[in-house]
Amino acid sequence: MRIDRWLSATALAVALSSSHAQQPLPLVVRVQPSGSEVPANLLRLTIQFDGQVEGPVLSRLVLLRADGTQVQQPFLQQELWAPNGRLLTLLMHPGRVKSGLIAHDELGPILSAGEEVMLVLDGHPIKRWRVGQADTVGPDASAWTLSTVRVDSRQPMVVTLDGPIDGRDADYLAVADPHGHRMPGHAQLADGERAWTFVPDLPWMAGTYKLVVRGTLEDPCGNRLGSRFETPIQSPPGAPVDAVIPFTAHRNP
Asked: What residue ranges define each of the domains in the chain, with the CATH number in brackets?
């Protein structure tokens, strides 16, 4: 990808935003999906700011292709804010993401595999992605791998997922101790939301633990654990079912 093509795209975004001067926004801390590639059927993205945001943001965002052309009507016209006013969730227009709907057929899909896109806020690029193939499979907890942890240590446990999950879902996974109680600790997503890391507040002890995954956990395409975004309207998915993965802490040799 040639950098001058992206610079021309940025210039276009500046021109688009210059017609309506607005108050500066807090700095963008993170955009998720944070990886370098997103599926063509991406449904959801989040923008985290370092301070509370006042006023709408959607009108200040532009999604551009590498040739500088603007992606038309990519977002649902609704801003979903966390209570602290710092985390914004945006939905790609669901009618254009899900096949078989009028908007999808008339306007076409938003993203196409093989292209590159850039998210621009107030004329400044905040995230670039390659677009890969659509993901219609979704998370499969049985395909995840858990790292080894040692008794009497606070060794982090790393769960390698089978693909990225929604960036807001770090707390949709939890560890139950051998007594069945939720183990206190700090959890975060890493590696483009492809890994979940848990650092316990207390040392691991001997016995069988359980990694509990909420059935409502989703990936960025809206595929839920055990159900798919592309499920036909006339065949709605069943109730979400939690997944449970047992594991043990190992004693030092």
From this structure: 3-132 (2.60.40.1220), 141-248 (2.60.40.1220)
Q: Give the residue carrying structure tokens 């227009």.
A: 93
Look at residue 95 in the predicted model and tell me its pLDDT.
66
CB 88 within 8 A of CB 57: yes
Residue 15 has, within 13 A of its CA and on its CB side, a CA count of 9
Q: How confident is the model at residue 2 (pLDDT cuts 50, 70, 90)?
A: very low
Residue 248: partners with Cβ closer than 8 Å, 6 or more residues away: 206, 207, 208, 209
Phi/psi class of residue 32: alpha, beta or left (left: φ > 0; alpha: ψ in -120 to 50)?
Answer: beta
Q: How many other C-beta atoms lie within 10 A of the C-beta of residue 243?
A: 18
Q: Which of 209, 244, 210 is nearest to 226 (CA)?
A: 244
For residue 33, cis peptide bond before it (omega within 30 degrees of 0): yes
Do residues 192 and 221 touch, judged by C-beta distance below 8 A?
no
What ranges in 1-152 are assigned the alpha helix state H?
A: 3-17, 94-97, 102-107
Q: In this predicted model, what pLDDT tens digit does every residue of 110-167 receive, in sequence order?
A: 899 999 999 999 999 999 999 999 998 889 999 999 999 999 999 999 999 999 999 9
Can you tell me the distance from the alpha carbon of 22 to that of 17, in angstroms, rounded to the nearest whole number?
Answer: 9
- Alpha carbon of 66 to those of 45, 71, 117, 131: distances in Å? 19, 11, 6, 11
Q: What is the mean pLDDT of residues 35-41?
A: 95
Give the predicted TM-score (pTM) of the model.
Answer: 0.84
Q: CA nearest 45: which of 231, 218, 232, 244?
A: 218
Q: Which two tokens stand for residue 136?
A: 């219609």
